[in-house]
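S.,

Sequence below, as promised.
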Amino acid sequence: MPEKKNCCTPATGRSLDTIETSAPPVGLQNKVDSPAIDTLNIPVVPIPGGEALQGTNQPMTPLDEESPCKTKQLHSFRMMQCAVTNELFEAFVNDTDYVTDAERFGWSFVFQPQSSSADNKQEYVAGSPWWRKVTGANWRQVNGPSKEGTAHPDHPVVHVSWSDANAFAKWIGGRLPSESEWEHAARGGLGDVPFPWGTQEPDDASFQPCNIWQGTFPERNTCADGFSATAPAESFTPNGYGLYNMCGNVWEWTSGRFKIESRNKAARRHAKQMKGTKILKGGSFLCHKSYCFRYRIAARTGTTPDSTTAHQGFRVVF
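The prediction came back faster than expected:
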């Protein structure tokens, strides 16, 4: 099987040789006194513990080590019903004066067709020229400094790093899910299925159960699902546990480090490339079967903890 390419994330984030950062890394602010979950009305759903599946015996990207399907034992937990929204992230920023990594660095990665100004089309990612370094892009201005890029309150927050996500999780009294927890929750009680809704694959014509790419990536998106970029966090039908958008819309940070255990030559080379990266799950509005096909439960990718893009978000567990 040909190895699927990764259209979705600049895997090595800000450490790319082709990119020069505009600001040095600085320490995270920490003004958290008590968990905000005590005062905010945030929909969460219970996820039962017990035997849980992780991975698949039908991998589409073998180098990512999606296989084999393993059985884990998990404690029960609660998970946010949808990804953290711009409205909720703004409450966090207002309460703590937090400054995100994208704001500190002064730029973030934006998908090329979304770039709002020719002046912003600076450096691009080698091998993925649709990812551009856009000055001024951050969670407030998702495409850079323009009215077109203003974040919608009910959409998932994006341009947030792994460190940003952890800071928010601490503020709200939770944490990022492990990869096992994320997959268990995404299955919604259906067991060994590839998608949160079951086994039927999305298509470009009549079945769009999630927000992904329709058409020819990266040139043409028909937007048959109704969205050219992010969708509201509570769009589409939730899975069996009541969770929205566990696949598609935005990639979601998890707590774990991206590891590859296989010792064959190709796997060792890939493991070296992914050293120090963190796991993201779920795929995004940029995924399409013809190119990366990572909007599956078992699919995984990784990027550096300081990486921020226009399609990376997160949700929190408790």
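Helices lie at 86-96, 101-105, 162-172, 179-187, 265-273.

Coffee later?
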